[in-house]
Batch of 3 targets.
Target 1
Amino acid sequence: MMSLNTSSRLLVRVSFASLVVLTLLLFLADFAGVPKAYVNGFFLVASIIGYAVIGLFCRTTAPEEYFVAGRRVSAPLNGMATAADWISAASFIGLTGLLLSDGFVGDGEHPGGLAYLLGWTGGFCLLGFLFAGKLNRSQSITIPEFLGRRFDSAAVRWFAAWGAILCSSIYLVAQIYGIGLVASMLSGLTFELGVFLALGGVLLCSFLGGMRAVTWTQGVQCVVIVVSMLALCVAVSFKTQGHPFFTVAAAQSLPQIQARAKQIEVDPAEQSTREVISLRMSNLDAKIADPVFAREIERQAVVRQVARAKADNAPLREIQKFESNPAWREPSVDRLVGAWQSERVMLAEAIYRPVGFQVPYLEGWNQGWLNSLALVFCLMLGTAALPHILVRSYTTATPVEAERSVVWALGIIVLVYLCASSLAVLLKSFVLTELVGAHMDQLPEWADRLKLRKLALLSIQDYNQDGIVQFADIRLFNDYLVLGVPEITHISSVFTGLLAAGALAAALSTADGLLLTISNALAQDLYFQTTAPDAPPLRRVMLSKILLMVVALLAAWFATNRPVSILFWVTCAFSLAASTFFPVMLLGLYWRGMNRVGALLAMGSGLSMSLYYIAVNHPWVQMRLQLHSVDTVWWGMDPVCAGVFGVPTGLLLGFLGSKLTSFKN
């Protein structure tokens, strides 16, 4: 029988060869003049069918295979599966846009992309050193089951199950949202149909074969992710610097970017644009302070503008522009205030984001450093405590193999992040040299295409009405900007399909792992623990499959409502996971005095603290509770950094609760 090490090597070779052959065939199709929509659609269909076929071949009803892949996955394959599980839509299609827009170190108030890179990669170091080997020794199936056994408590297992469901559900909705974006952009279908089309591939894989099928599928998806990102970076590097070494090409482009950024910052037209934006922000502040009066004034102004336009026989488009004013179309004052707040946030991003990749706050301590360090803290501890990542430690044969698989995963992830970082730098040079300074009626061809897409990747607002594009006029949509790289850099459109196949693989692989985590928590840790503890294994597997399908459909429904940015929700999931699971895992594994009371207090207090901080600073909650004028931010900390309050709270109360109740145990 073929060993798993040999099988994993064969999997990599076959996946790589298939992807290369497919890409070459599509290059020929593109050269022959086949429409781009057909080429991209073929990538989509081939990807989904390929993953579904793997799911069919790996179908199983054996509990050990379904829940933990037989506990015999080799370190390289488990590392590839973990990396694919980890490199979600946020990492693959969101990180490049974030680095391009916000820079590596942020704007002096909010963190930049470097905090994400350090936090996410550093978290795997914590996972390997602290948890992977010990979890493997436990021979559990889920993280709640492990905690329930450790503290000999059904209540601990029950609470951990709900914590895992909450963290994973938030993460899952973001992934399915990313799947819908990619599928709709590739196929031309509506966003909603794109969600449910791609969801079929997820269900066929995880529903039929559980962790066994997901592991092999994620191995293939890892190859697709890495090859697609590497191929794109090499192509862009050749286009910009004439060689394939993309990290070197990024370093070569930096001096030109920095010089151009300095020119833009001192340009009088740029300063004029920023002054107009600042004035608009001041006006919005005044409206938010007294929304009823402001709405009445705005409506009177719209009435006069529409009447004047109709008297002058203005085009319908111009009349509709006046009527699109939020004060005219929003009947609710609360919703109107929400619209004004959203506009203010967008304007603040335009005026404060760094032009180049300079470091704006090296001199002295300030809020930017505090937010960056807090975000690194939350992401590191959240990475080491995410249930769908921790559960991969159960699938290897030995603790050593579990730790080695973390090393494999970390190496793959670092490679992808190097690609994303280099790509952001290379893209910045196109934005600063080709787009900034262009006339509004003579934009680069790629800018016009990105603006007119069904899901626009770019918007430009001429704030100072000079007919010239300034840096502050530009808004790039970070969530899926990377899908526009082939158009921006003038390379073959086949790379769009290849890149989207990688993005789809990233979102699907993470969604697979999250769905299994949620459905197993519902079935194993909640239902069978309380209702049918003696249920036969086959019944357990079948209920988990049914719940997996229900959870997938519910998540897809939530995703079709288009929540806020992918990166926001993903980062919130990390803070919640860090606050809920890191304290109880750390104390439970490394302190003998930790008991069930301390475990419940650690999870409950950490989760409650983080949930409160995220919720009370969310615009919707502030609008409902009339908190516009109340300072709900502690020490200037971003809401996504809620874990910086939740983790210490969980550690403290977990320790105190165990100490104060130790005499009862």
Target 2
Amino acid sequence: MRKAFLFVASLVCGSLAFSQTFVSTTPSNKKVVIEEFTGINCGWCPQGHLYVNQIMAAHPNQVFAINIHAGGYAANTYTTTDGERIRANWNVTSFPSGMVNRTIFNTASSPVYGRNSFSSYANAALSQRACANIAARCTIDCDTRIMTVNVELFYTDSSQVDTNYLSVALLQDNILGPQSGSSLNPDQIVGDQYNHMHMFRGMVNGSTWGDTIATTDSGSFVSRTYTYTIPATISNVPVLLNDLSVIAFVAEGKANIINVCKADITYLNGVPTLTKMAMSEHESCNMEFPTYVSVYNLGQDTVRSLEIRYGTTVRGSYTMTHSGMNLGYMESDTIHLPVITGLFSSGSNYTGYAKIIGINGVAVDYDSITCTLKKYKKNAVGDTLTFELTTDRYGSETTFKFIHIDRSVVLSGGPYPNDTIITDIIKLAVPHDGCYILEVYDAAGDGINSGYGNGNFKLSDNTGTVLSDNGRFGTLAQYFINCSGTSNDIETASAIDFAIYPNPVSNTLNIDCDQEVSKIEVFDMQGKKMTIADNATAINVSTLDKGIYLVRIITNEGVGVRTFVKE
């Protein structure tokens, strides 16, 4: 890591009438920072993240999170030197756990508490009077990656100790990666990855424990300026400038934080940037990869249109123009790319890429971003499947369906009794070759293995190969399975072939089929029929919400199904 820092301190006593300052001089209560110790192999850590997010939502701009990946459960992923020093100082071995303003509450011997204490201790800290106010402003030069942080302190009362310590922490949001127990915080799940937020990337002012503040009497004013060169990566993770945040806090020592703030960030010399590329939550028996990109405008000019080149590393590239935009400075948008299809190998994963090649009709050449395009289809051998379901204590919340891709139900079950663990083993006779969907529902939205019994379900084929094995999910666990007694390649399954366009679509979805189409039906991904058209070659989808849908056509020769994205 390249790190450069410089600070300038100034002290002014009295009314400060002659200085232009941005820190408040009015006495106020403390704000709160919750430093949560976490790790990717910690199954309960997502619940800790969820609790902190709920506390921040209840106290906007008053409570801030710092997620520190350290210790054994981190598995050396996302860890930092500063983070490990903080964990080691308090000998943290239980995860998730955390500190609320690094303060010892009640009769505890340590400022480190379990996740169930975060809320009550945060409320207690928010009711305490702060002896000092703190404010911070930050600029990031996108060309040089130099960040300048200005921090101001004003003591409305004297500190209880003569020397305080000022710390400036760098955080990063929207880091997609692995996480055990992610279903405990389903809002953070993106495809098959977890969206890590408030991730600690290190201290930017030269010390794990902060910069010395020697003047802490009532009426004291302190101003510090730090410069820091933002590295391209930290712990092997690309550092995206638009996903950064800065938290500044002042403490009596290593513990007892007096007050905290989040810095306002201004970007200099910025341009519109693709910040994320991901595959939409989507499963299919077809080789289709619906993807989207997130764009963030760090430039001062309004973006009216973007030209994007995208594709896969093995199947060439495509271009699309996204117009009708009105993206101002520091505004973001999500753009759904046309579904990538082609002759790919069944069951394989691929690398997709996207880059901006034009802005408002002017050609540019910016860096690419990438993501994994994953094939979700499972291949089953034989004409019989074994489905084994074990409920938790709330069996009344659990139901399942095994359906054909045309939404016809082969078998369904549930709900089950409460307060009784039931294991149901069913032999599923597959009516014919083709694509099927297993859907397991939990009405409470916390799966069947979230602390109320070790619920689970498993689906196996004739050879004993396990096709799905899960218990931790949100409202729905969904698996697409290609069943065939003679072939494991869905491309050989008999079905009507047809094309759809445009995809994504805003208003009218057109059908291109060699057969005469007697009916067009559109379903959402839960099987609800949304709209229908008879004897047509197009269907109006303008009233549908944004998302992924199934379109099914019926002809005299058979049935065909495709997915599309409504934008």
Target 3
Amino acid sequence: MTDSDNSNKTQIRSDQPKVIARGAEPGVFDNLTQITHYSASHNHSAGFAQARELVKQSQTGKGLLLKKRFLLEDVLGHGGMGTVYKTKDLRKVEAEDPNPYIATKVLNQDFKDHPDAFVTLQQETAKSQTLAHPNIVTVHDFDRDGDTLFMTMELLDGQPLDQLLKAHRNKGLPKEQVWKITRDLCAALAYAHQRQLIHADFKPGNIFVNRDGSAKVLDFGIARAATREAHKHKFDAGQLGALTPAYATIEMIKDESLSFSDDVYALACVVYEMLAGRHPYNNRSALQAYEQKMQPKRLDCLSSREWKVVSRGLVPLKSGRYQNITQFADALFPRRNPMLLTVALGFAVVSLAGAGWFGYSQYQAKQHLQKTIAEKITAAQSCFALQNFDCTIEHSLVATNLDPANNVAAQLLTAAQTAKEQRVNDERVRELIAEAQSCLQQQDLDCAALFLQKAEAIGLHNSQVVSFHEALSVARAQQAQSTAQKQLAINSALTRAQNCLSSKDYSCAVNSANAVLDQDAANARAVEIKQAATLAQGQARELTERVSRLMGDANNCMEKKNYACAIAKAESVLELDADYQPAATLKNRAQETQRKLKETGFTIK
């Protein structure tokens, strides 16, 4: 057995050089714990004695014992799911079986740590155990020993196809060998598909070529759940393994529902790679090949009919390629010309019984197929009633794959896909409206409108969208009303500031301008009035100081009876402020006093 995402697949050759000899390298088994001890006191056969001796050796570091039965000896390979060991089954040793070896895969920490790993992988192992086919690796069991989870399976003799292809890079394998392997792969996949199991991780690393030239498919139901049938455990083993893009369809890359056609595409890629020694799309995924409009290079070793079949299997779009393995295999390996059957007419009587049995078998198979389709449709209908759309899609997809013309299954599939998409859209709309509500609470209506626009693009008539659209309209109306009221207040304050400035009430003008700027800091008219009022305030203060100083001088002149000086100072004040009455009064008084003195004969100095 091998790990689905590991290029080092030499672990299942029973005669290959050991990667790690028993007891040769400390720490090989350090990650395994809770290992049980071996005993069987009721048996004293030669086989048991040998088994007991092996157990003693394991206690000194030569191997590791699981479940008092499986002695892990050599590390055969590592992968994403865990480590594969060449293992002696002590039950076979006891029974003196000449070939007591099996393969054991010990799961890594990612699987061990997941709470549903044991239950789910045991279900997946059960699926693999139903695939009793000569071209599918045999999985024996799935178990745990303390904290150690492991699977046991047959030990194969040969090498993985990916290693075989590396040795023939850019050259390819002989066509006869490729067709032999391809027939085995078609047989394995068709057998699994009849049982509604889709491999979903088909690639050279999951194909093993035995020494006799036959091929086996590995990791069925282990790398990923094949049909993804709904059950209470949501853990999917495939989520811990990496998707292999080079052999993945557009639907798989986009994480859409699986179909038999996914395995067709992967198989066609493998067939091309075996023939050419290279990937048809240079290891690009189907999505990249489609987006970049890549075309696989024509293979000269194929006839026109063969190339037509292989190239159709390589079509990136699901609608353009074969929908199941049987269609692909029948086209690639067509049955002999029916005219040749005339040669066998002499054997008609002998074959009547066989023909009758064959017809009955075909009838039984058809009945079983119809029963399976009916069961899947019933399950899909129940899931749809419970609004479990993923479950509906899974069951109806199986039914449509088995019977593409079944309208009920097709309608269920379409309805479930539509409903699922609507549910996703509703959730996205809900998130966007929540963001819009947050913006609205902060009075950022432009922000709210942006999120609303995104929500409308998803569901224009969604009730949440309609409701928020109304709320935003109300908020805009309230904002417009508030803005209008604010503008009225600003206009009124500007008028008052201008009037105060005109009447030289500069403090009033500054205060009124500040009232405007508090609401509109960039209001140019308010800034202009404030600057003018402030400047005028300074000039008025300076004028007052000069007038006061000159009036003081004029009063001093009057006290000294220097009336000409008093008149001159008063006139200077009146030049600065012609309306300044105290200066006019002082000037008149000085002139009158000066006149009276002249009339009485006094000399005025």
